[in-house]
Specification:
140 residues, alpha+beta, two-stranded antiparallel ribbon
């Protein structure tokens, strides 16, 4: 299994693709090692796999983690649903990239840079689909 991190804008176009890493590396460790091209004042919507990840001048939006042995308050659950409604569009982008079947299957090409190139092709095809298909509506 391989991992990449994507930065997606409000129009659901992929702006940034990280290097390909083995699946055993945690998402936060990849994010810490990756220089993000985010301007100050922007918002970053992330899931709980990036707990404690911060960027200077960037507003981080993520769901509230459930405390051990307790439940979330009604307001926290409502806020988590609001974040989930936005994040589902990002998950649609991830599935759109993986329509390129080569990304779902085991890549047996071991030459340096091939795995990154295959992921770049999948992201480029997604961006092409977004530009040509009016059904991809932007996030709120």
């Amino acid at each position: 299994m391989l991992k990449n991190l994507l930065l997606i804008d409000a129009a659901l176009c992929i702006l940034f693709l990280s290097e390909t890493h083995p699946g055993s590396i945690h998402d936060k460790r990849i994010a810490d090692a990756t220089p993000y091209p985010l301007p100050a004042g922007s918002q970053l919507l992330q899931d709980l796999g990036f707990q404690a990840f911060t960027l200077d001048g960037v507003d981080i939006i993520q769901p509230t983690k459930k405390p051990r042995g307790r439940t979330l308050t009604r307001a926290q659950r409502a806020a988590n649903r609001k974040v989930a409604r936005r994040r589902v569009r990002i998950e649609h982008v991830n599935s759109s990239v993986k329509r390129c079947r080569m990304l779902k299957e085991t890549i047996r090409l071991w030459k340096a840079g091939i795995r990154d190139m295959v992921m770049e092709i999948g992201c480029a095809l997604h961006n092409f689909r977004v530009r040509l298909t009016p059904s991809w509506t932007p996030m709120i």
